[in-house]
Amino acid sequence: MNNKKTLVVEQLEGADPYKLATGLIVPRPIGWIGTLSASGVPNLAPFSFFNCVSGNPPMFVFSAGRSARRDTLDNVRSSGEFTINIVTEEVAEAMNATSASVDAGVNEFDIAGLAEVRSTRISAPMVAECKANIECVVADVLTIGHATEGNALVIGEAVVFHIEEQLLDGTRIDQVALRAIGRHAGNSYSRSTDQFDLERPE
Fold first, then answer.
1. What's the rounded mean pLDDT across residues 113-136?
2. pLDDT tens-digit profile of 60-111?
3. What's phi and psi for 103, nearest 5 deg?
4. Among 82, 53, 77, 71, which Cα is nearest to 143's?
5. Do residues 85 and 130 lie in contact, with contact meaning Cβ atoms separated by under 8 Å?
6. Measured distance CA(108)–CA(71) in Å, rounded
7. Euclidean distance between CA atoms 142 and 103, whole angstroms
8. For residues 81 and 156, what is the distance between their CA atoms, to the nearest angstrom?
9. 1-34: per-residue pLDDT in tens?
10. Residue 149 pLDDT exceeds 80
11. DSSP E strands: which ranges in 11-169?
């Protein structure tokens, strides 16, 4: 421990806690979340505070800032639905284009030049160019973190998966062929194609 610097969170300032968290928890999967507004406007935004938290039923979480990217959070609360569109190398540039701050009611599918696909069980749109999409219904939305600058943790349950057949061996996904990417700190991302195996101990 002697060569480690100790940083007490309550003594940190500004964005420093965020920088430490996002610099250490890497790579983070990216939840590319599709929603539909109450007035019928599609919305698409990426969230790297995202993960799978249950396998049966499959449940996912993403965390949206309560003061930023209000469209996604407002749409999720009003509709109770969202899609997850898996971010791979092929759509990385388009995903990045949808991360820009835009006025409320702007269609990010148009900004990124993406095609919308209708979901089969919910109203939220999916990204046609993605190799896999998941339709989800909202199980809960929890308020977490700082009273004014914290986040909303959206918990969703999968109701339908859409996956390119070439990726599937039964229900196992070919990880190399998927070519998913992960988020690091700042503008950095990584590829998930450099993999190794470890046998679990019995």
1. 98
2. 999 988 666 679 999 999 999 999 999 999 999 999 999 988 877 889 999 9
3. -65, 155
4. 77
5. yes
6. 11
7. 25
8. 8
9. 679 999 999 999 999 999 999 999 999 999 999 9
10. no
11. 31-36, 42-47, 50-55, 58-65, 81-86, 116-117, 126-127, 132-144, 151-163, 168-169
- How crowded is residue 68: how many other Cβ atoms within 10 Å of its Cβ? 12
> Which domains are assigned to the chain?
27-191 (2.30.110.10)
- Residue 81 makes CB contacts below 8 A (sequence gap 6+) with 35, 36, 119, 122, 123, 124, 135, 136, 137, 138
Show contacts of 137-146: CB within 8 Å, 24+ apart. 137/80, 137/81, 138/76, 138/77, 138/80, 138/81, 138/82, 139/59, 141/73, 141/76, 141/77, 143/66, 144/63
Give this prediction's pTM. Answer: 0.94
Task: Please give the pLDDT value at position 93.
Answer: 98
pLDDT of res. 37: 95
